């Protein structure tokens, strides 16, 4: 089932998410719904807070990036078939010289900006069968994971922009939070508080 994606301005996107137990209710169904929602919106990653759940889980499938001719063979290889579920993840290491890449987000449609991140990460996580893994990722794969990981920490990519960039996109962000955008996937917009 395709779920609505929570739009910028919703408080759930700024909450630090909580770990989940192995017997979390309807976990398999939730994961299936998240895949369907992400693919329906042409995304490469989706975190649980983006569907309104403040839990430490996200999914990624950055394989569409593997078609990019500008990528190194190593990057392409790592991205192909990299479809993963991350439950209760913990990034334990981020290394290397920061590099910029133009990022976007399903919760912040039509806004793309360069974000600086470190190229190498080590992450501990549980998969959909609650099997524990410790894995290293580099380049674009690491970036997609870092972006989704930020979501479960209550951080959006726009939080990483300079104050000038933030001022330049302020109007766009306000329009998104008010639902004044045209997109081709389901979204849930923050409830606007009416004055008395």
UniProtKB/TrEMBL annotation:
Instruction: List the keywords (alphabetical).
Output: Hydrolase, Iron, Metal-binding, Protein biosynthesis
- The active-site annotation reads 148
According to the record, cofactor stoichiometry and binding are noted as:
Binds 1 Fe(2+) ion.
Q: Which GO terms describe its molecular function?
A: metal ion binding; peptide deformylase activity
Cofactor requirement: Fe(2+)
Asked if the Swiss-Prot or TrEMBL record annotates the protein with the keyword Iron, the reply is: yes
Claim: Nucleotide-binding is one of the keywords in the record: no
State where Fe cation binds: 105, 147, 151
Taxonomic superkingdom? Bacteria
Class of the enzyme per the UniProt entry, highest EC level: hydrolase
User: Which GO BP terms apply?
Assistant: translation
Q: Which family does it belong to?
A: Belongs to the polypeptide deformylase family.
Name of the protein: Peptide deformylase
Point out the gene that encodes the protein.
Answer: def
């Amino acid at each position: 089932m395709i779920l609505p994606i929570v739009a910028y301005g919703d408080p759930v996107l700024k909450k630090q998410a909580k770990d989940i137990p192995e017997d979390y209710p309807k976990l398999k169904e939730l994961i299936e719904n998240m895949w369907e929602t992400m693919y329906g919106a042409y995304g490469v990653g989706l975190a649980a807070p983006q569907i309104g759940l403040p839990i430490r889980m996200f999914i990624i499938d950055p394989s569409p990036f593997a078609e990019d001719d500008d990528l190194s063979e190593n990057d392409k290889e790592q991205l192909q078939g990299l479809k993963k579920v991350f439950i209760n993840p913990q990034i334990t290491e981020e290394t290397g010289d920061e590099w910029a890449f133009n990022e976007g987000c399903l919760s912040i449609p039509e806004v793309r900006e360069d974000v600086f991140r470190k190229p190498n990460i080590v992450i501990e996580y549980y998969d959909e069968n609650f099997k524990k893994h410790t894995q290293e990722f580099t380049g674009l794969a690491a970036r997609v994971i870092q972006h989704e990981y930020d979501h479960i920490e209550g951080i959006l990519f726009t939080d990483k922009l300079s104050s000038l960039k933030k001022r330049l996109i302020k109007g766009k962000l306000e329009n998104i939070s008010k639902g004044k955008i045209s997109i081709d996937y389901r979204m849930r917009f923050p409830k606007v508080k009416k004055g008395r």
